[in-house]
Amino acid sequence: MVKKLLFPILLAALFFSVTYDASAAGAYSDVGDQYAAKAELEFLAERGITASGPNVAFGVNKSITRLDAAEMLVKARDLPTSGRPDPKLADVKKGMPGYGIIAAVADEGIMVGSLQGKFNPQAYLTRAEMAAILVRAFDLKTGQGQTGFAFTDVNQKSFAAPSIGILFANNVTFGYPDHTFKPEMTLTRAHFGIFLARILEPDFREVLACFAPVSKKTYHVSTPVTTLWKAPNLARTVDRPATGDPADMAKWTKSMTIPQKQWLVGKTETQALYGQEVEVLKTSGKWMQIAVKDQYSPKNKAGYPGWVPAAHVKASYADYDGCAKAVVSSPTAKLYASAASGQPFMTISFNTELPVIDTSSGWVKVQTPLDGAKYIRQTDVKVKKPGEAVPKPSQHDILTTAKKFNGLPYLWAGTSGFGLDCSGFTYSVYRQHGIELPRDASVQAVHGTAVAKNRLQPGDLLFFAHNRGQGSVHHVGMYIGDGKMIHSPNPKRTVEIMPITAEPYNSEYAGARRYLR
Question: 220 an active-site residue?
Answer without folding.
Answer: no
